[in-house]
Amino acid sequence: MTRGLLAFASRAFPRDHRARQSGELVDTALLAADGSRWRAFREALSLVGAGLRQRSRATEGDTSLRDGAALLAGMLSVVNLAIAFFGISLALSPEPFDHSTPCCNFFIPNPNAVDWWWIAFAVAGAGIVLGLALARRRLAIGAALVNVGLVSYDALVLAPHDKGHMYAISPWGWPDAYPIHQDWLAPAIVLALATAAAPSRRRSLLRVPLVLVGAALLAVLAREQWGHGFLFLLLPAGGLLALSVALGWLAPRLAVLALGVSAALVPPVVQVLTRPSWEYHSPVVTWVAAPGLALGILVPLAYLTRRRLA
Amino acid sequence: MEIRRSTYFVLAALLDGPLHGYAIIGRAAELSGGEVRLSTGTLFGALDRLLAAGLVEAGEEEKVEGRVRRSYTLTQDGHTALSTEAARMRRAALVVETRVAGAAT
Lengths: 310, 105
Hints:
The complex is a heterodimer of chains A (310) and B (105). Chain A has helices at 2-10, 18-22, 24-33, 37-60, 65-92, 116-133, 137-158, 185-197, 207-224, 234-247, 252-273, 283-309.
């Protein structure tokens, strides 16, 4: 059993590592454990830690901070497109929303209406994805800027007058929905910055249909959430953030990713924290998300500063 | 270049001749008076860095009592790096020791 545990832990090392291939790692760890289960457990942990460091050095050695921007742009562009698909899908399958009921009279726009804004938003979102995948830098940056323009118009001009398109995410006005009001403005800006910073690298064309399917799947899942929209993404985003903060010192592109994701999530968290005391305050936001985001910004910044000084 | 404490004792363990992984762990603990207890992960992390830097050479693997062993040998560059580090630490210790002795008299 001890040998099995150590053999499993040694798999953290790259497959072509001489000591993993020969079994030298396992044999040395077995001798070091000296028959003690507790020591074997410690040896297994040390093998996993050292193996992960080896792997990250092997895979991250040639990557740059701009690769982190590419990763960030790729992830945000998929969610951006998923939000656009969500809006467009309302034309095909409207939400059961009664515009005439008294509770909803204050909602001036029909959340199921798909107008020029949703279409332009979807085109811009598709433009970013295509530009990034086909290494068409001008297309990607142009589409990202148009995307920022559209989201800014919606967030700053329409949303303050209850005409924002993001109301479609949660027409019932539930407080724990994402993204609503001006929530998507910061991610759109981060997406544009990351797209501009990402290196121009042509990806496999197979990725484009995969991204489209992924975005469509996210949109379907968000539709299933009944008024919570893409809030379900916050849990994996939190996990990703924790992983990026933990491994950012080994993999600088993860530090960039953590910084970008944190910056994108700061505005809605600040908005929740600064709500009047009589409004709903999610304890998760107050006690988990806010400190998590603070760490998500400060720790990667420290990594990147240290890397720059080194 | 400053050498980490664990790496310093890995190099020091190889001064007397080639050793395999587990023997390096034992010798490093012995030389450090039990202060440096290398785990297998730390040892192979250090060995990989030293191999890449050319301070250590890996021998052919052999099977002894059903266990795989590979001996590691200190190279000339390894000797030089270890001596340089020892001299650096001696100078650093001297700075403190002379002042402590001066203050005591």
